[in-house]
Amino acid sequence: MTKKIIKYILSAALLVFLCYNAVYFKKLDEVKKASTVSKFDAIKYARKYYNAVIPIAGKSIEYNKLLSLLTSNPEKTFADHSHALGIGNIKYFLVQGKGTIKSVNESSITVLIKTDSAEALVNIATEFVFGNAIRDASGIIKLNEFSSTSDLNNVSAEINKIIRDEVLPPFTAKAKPGDAITFSGAIELNKKNLNTEGIEVVPVAINVIQ
């Protein structure tokens, strides 16, 4: 065997060795496991947020008082009590109150709220719970917590699912006209085109007073 052939064989062997060590193969299930570990858990985040927002909503502004403030000084009321993650005129408020069910409708209940100084009717959603009202109304969520809009939207979806699956069924199963109830929840208002007629509350908590 000539030196030229030996040199060629050694060069080829070295090339194969380098290529083999340069390429690192992982099992597919290991790759999937690694990607799962770093994936944002919207369900866990939503649960933690919901548990945190319950006491905040329970101490929020009384519904009739908010209506009065919006009439007398809307600019200050929005500044003091509303929140939103995005820019624009759509803002969200946390409210709470106590009242009497006037009617049970297909997708909501109508409640009469009486206080010392005022009374008002409000609709509370019992069927179609969606959107970002509960997520944004507290002001405790910050945009920089999320790496993508998708994660942020998934949090809204999971919060709303908690309301639909856990909060509303025990209430709607027994609620009827004439029942006294307590509630806390979130509302959406347009700062530029303010309309306080037909406001709908997305409930955070709602209970019949025994």
User: Could you tell me how far the N terminus lies from the C terminus, measured between alpha carbons in angstroms?
Assistant: 101 Å
* Order of SSEs: HHHEHHEEEEHHEE
Strand content: 25-35%
The counted number of beta strands is: 7
Q: So, the CATH homologous superfamily?
A: Envelope glycoprotein gp160, DUF2291, alpha/beta domain
CATH topology: OB fold (Dihydrolipoamide Acetyltransferase, E2P)
Characterise this structure.
The chain has 210 residues and is α+β, with helices and mostly antiparallel strands. The chain has one domain: OB fold (Dihydrolipoamide Acetyltransferase, E2P). Helices cover 45% and strands 25% of the residues. It has 7 helices and 7 strands, in the order αααβααββββααββ. It has helices at 3-22, 28-37, 42-58, 63-72, 74-81, 133-137, 149-172, and strands at residues 61-62, 82-83, 90-104, 108-114, 119-125, 180-190, 200-208. The protein has a 5-stranded mixed barrel. β2 and β3 (90-104) form a beta hairpin. α3 crosses α7 (149-172). The N and C termini lie far apart (101 Å). The model is unreliable at 22-26 (pLDDT under 50).
